[in-house]
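Sanity check

After download, print the first record. It should look like this:
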Amino acid sequence: MNARDKAIIADIERFRYLTRDDIAELYFGHTRHPITQTNLVLKRLRRDGYVKCSTERRKYVYYAADRKLKADSQKVAHFLAIAEYYKRIRAEEEPRVFEVEPKLGDKGRPEPDVFAIWKGAPWYVEIQRSTYTDKQMADKLNRYEAYYNSGEWKRESWQPQNRTIFPYVWIIGAAKYNVGERPFRVYQASVDELMARIKR
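Expected structure tokens:
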């Protein structure tokens, strides 16, 4: 198995689920025939037992063979949306860190979909595929605020040596919420909208 195969398997494990087109874009976009190349590699990885394939959707979805994941999981679309977000920000600038569903401590702590260090800043990203009530969003942000007040985030290994930074909270979704006054920055924007702000 070559380094590229190992990297593809690592990304399938990181994102939980990826489509063939995701893998083609991430690994074979520079080739003349990215889909053909991707199909050859995925066929080999399936044959050798490294990945499994769900044919439930129009676009086949690949996941790690050794993970206890279901081909028809309700969360497939959620993880594919995270992969789509990654591809979108990567097109602007490769994130230095990109963690899917990082654990920030015990039960009751916030559960971001993504932690990323991108554009020189740390981000907790919430990718909303459905509309929350204001109360649901307030509960989610209250968990971030409790985590902020705990100070536990100051001990994270990614913190710069000379100062501490609480990540920006970035909500991506169709709805806009009343987020109230928070001791940290909350952005509600698509990737395109946020990029436009950064460039301004």
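If your output differs, re-run the checksum step. Summary of this record's structure: The chain has six helices and eight strands.
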